[in-house]
Write a structure and sequence with these properties.
By secondary structure, this protein is α/β, with parallel strands linked by helices. It is built from 4 helices and 8 strands. The longest helix is centred in the middle third of the chain and has 10 residues.
Length: 154
C-alpha cells in the first residue's frame, strides 16, 4: 500500500474477461496477491463471472449482497468486443452519423499502400446500414445542434 497502513486497506480486483475464461489478479487488504480463474459463461452456476469471482474471494454465498466498504477497486478489461470486431461476428449494426457524413468511414483516410493500384480493395464495413441524423458537435465536443431523438427514430 502506498501509505504503508494496511489497516485502511481494502480488496482490489483486476479482471480480464475473455471469451472462454475470466482471469483475476486479486490484492488482499494485507497486500498479498493471488490469482483466480473462472469460465466466462457458466449459467448453471452463476450469471456473471466477474461478480462470481469477487463473491468467491470474499466468501459471499449465492446472491447475497457484497459487504459495504471492503472493496477499493475493480478494474476490468475484455477481449470479447475486440474479437467480435476482428472476426466480424456479433449483432447486426446500424451506424447513426451527423447529416452529411454517411460515407465518412467508407472514405476513411484514403490510405493506398500501392499508389498505382487500379483496383482498391476496401475493408468490409462493421455496420450494415447508415442513417444520417440532425445533430452537430464542435471539435471540442460542444453541442452545436442538439440531437432530435424523435426525428432520428423515423
Amino acid at each position: 500500500m502506498a501509505d504503508g497502513n494496511v489497516s485502511n486497506a481494502k480488496w482490489q480486483f483486476w479482471i480480464d474477461r475473455g471469451g472462454t475464461f475470466t482471469d483475476f489478479v486479486i490484492r488482499a487488504p494485507d497486500g498479498e496477491l493471488t490469482t483466480h480463474k473462472l469460465l466466462s459463461e457458466n449459467p448453471e452456476r452463476y450469471k456473471d463471472a466477474a461478480l462470481q469471482g469477487i463473491r468467491e474471494t470474499l466468501g459471499v454465498e449465492g446472491d447475497a449482497p457484497l459487504p459495504d466498504g471492503i472493496v477499493e477497486a475493480v478494474k476490468m478489461g475484455t477481449t470479447v468486443a475486440t474479437n467480435a470486431l476482428l472476426e466480424r461476428k456479433g449483432e447486426r449494426t446500424l451506424l447513426a452519423v451527423t447529416r452529411g457524413f454517411a460515407d465518412q468511414l467508407r472514405i476513411g483516410y484514403q490510405n493506398r499502400p500501392n499508389i498505382f493500384a487500379r483496383r482498391i480493395e476496401l475493408p468490409e464495413l462493421l455496420y450494415e446500414s447508415v442513417i444520417e441524423v440532425n445533430e452537430r458537435l464542435s471539435a471540442e465536443g460542444d453541442v452545436l445542434t442538439p440531437l432530435d431523438e424523435d426525428a432520428a427514430r423515423t
